[in-house]
Structure formats: C-alpha cells, structure tokens
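Take a look at the protein record below and flag anything odd:
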Amino acid sequence: MKFFFKISPVFAALLIASGLSAQAPASDFSLLQVHRDTLTVPADTAVLTLRVPFVASGTDSVWLGTKLLRRNREYTLDNARGKLKLLRKFPPGSLIVVTYRAYAVPLLPVYRAVPVVFFRQDSGRAAGVKKSPAERPSAGMRKAFPEVGQLRKSGSISRSITVGSRQGLRLDSGLRLQLEGRLTPDVRVVAALSDQNTPIQPEGTTQSLQEIDRVYIELQGPQFGARLGDFDVDYGLGRYGQYHRKLQGALLQLERGPVKVRVAGATSRGKFFTNRFRGEEGKQGPYQLRGEHGETEIIVLAGTERVWVDGERMVRGENNDYVIEYSTGQLTFTRNRLITADSRIEVDFEY
C-alpha cells in the first residue's frame, strides 16, 4: 500500500515566518540571503519561475533593462512557489532581472514512502516513442518486504450444455476467481469472486464442505479483521442459545488484549425454517424436507442444516449419522443411526 502526503508551500512559509517573527521585527529581512535571477521572457507563456521559492514579502524587485516594473500592475508574484506572472506583453527574448530575499526552507514539495508510478499514454507508440517503464520500489524495500504487493491468483471457468427430452437446449456457465496476498507487512487480503449460473451444490456426504458460491473480500491484521460479502455466524451459548446463519453483509472484528469485539450487519442468504416429524419403522430415508408452505421443490443452502434425533445432535457424513442431498432437500440416515417409528426428528435449515 502506497502512502504519500504533500506539504503546502504556503503553510510552510507561514510556519517559518511566524518563527522568525518571534526573534526579529517583521520588516527586518537582513538575515535572509539575497538572490538575483536573470530570466528570459518566453513566447508561449507569461509565467516565470524563480530559482528559490518562499520569497520574503516586500523584498522583490523586477527590472526590465533600467525600468523598474510595478507590482500588481505589471507583474504578480506567488511568494510561496516563486512563480512570477507578467501582466503585460513584453517582447519574447527580453531579459528580466529579479532580486529578492528568500527563506532557506529545506523542504521537498512532495514526500512519499513508496514512489508513485506514472505511465505514459499509448498514443506515443504512433510517434515511435517507447513507453517509460514502471518505477519499482527500491531494492531495500523489496528485500525487507518481499511479499508486499504480490497477489496470488487462481480460479476456473466452466461451461455446460443441458439437453433433455422435455426441455430445450440450455447453456450454463460459471466463473471463480481467488486472490490472496499482502497489502502491507501486517495486513493480508483474501478475496473470492464468483459468477455462477448453475444450481450445483456441494455433496452432503462428508462432515466438512467446500462451497463454490462464496463471494467476499477479507482484510486480516494483527488486531483487526474485516470481511465484506458472504460469511458464517455460529454462536453456541447452551441449548437455548444456538444461532447459526449464513449471511451476506459486513463483519468487523477487533481484538486488543483480552477484549474481543465482533460486529456484523447483514441479511440472511436464504429463508430459515424447521421441519419436525417422526421417523418410519425400518426406513432410513430419504426423508423429504419441505419449505414454509409445504413445497418440496427446494434447494437447501449447503451447511445450514442442523439435524436432531430424540434431542441428540447428528453429525453429517457417510461414516457418521446422516447424508443430505442439498439440490433436492432429501435427508438419509446411515446405518450408524437406526430410525424407528418412535424417533423424533427435527431439522433446522435455510433454503
């Protein structure tokens, strides 16, 4: 990340003037160095630049030959920047002599931690002008922070064609892009961008899921974290303090010593609903989940389900308690969890 700031010449001149006024009267400029500039009147502009800026007010004299020019009638002077503007038209090539006193201000006009990169326009190619190379950070900075400014990119593009006996030709496409790197030595950025035009959901046959539809930008620092896009909120405060949601919005986390603060503002990605029903004797599944109005054509958001049997929390996975088909909303229990007519089943999910 590049930082730079600009020091106003007017502000710097005021600071120096105020400092000198505490030691000497405002009209006493005898301690200031005298400068004498000989300038040539150009043909294309009426502005001339003095060699030294921060001119002391009232110490300037401008001569054209033996004639003393009048300030604010024949010329104006920007004391802070040392810019002399001619208010009359003088013959090009005429010599103008300027004498003045200036403050010795050891300041550069611009200060920055990393050099700013400027690019020349492509129009120079037609005239045979080579493009100037980008200005890179110094070797010392690259050695001290080798990862700063380097983003690792990965992703994929998918295309699919669907043809059926009762439907026409349909083209589906998808794009995934992931970025990761460091903006500064202490700040890391992670981004996942997705443009999916497909109802594909992860398989609910394992305990952990790898979702393909997350879109977010995340910043991670030593004492803070910020995320914009998709994120999960998972609070387990006892049996009656359970809160699990997949949200879209902004999340901010601050940590200072033992104090941790987490603030989120978001909306739910789907609609939350609960199914309660009894099992069937000898039937492990599939059990069809239903929406708020009894509809069965639903797509369950991956990882949002919480399954309880007789008050006991079930674990997803073929080697655990159940598997789920997210695209159809069908739940099947494994042989590790036998279902009878007395089994009380409760499923919380978003769709």
Q: What stands out?
A: The longest helix spans residues 9-21. The mean pLDDT is 76. The chain is about 5% helix and 45% strand.
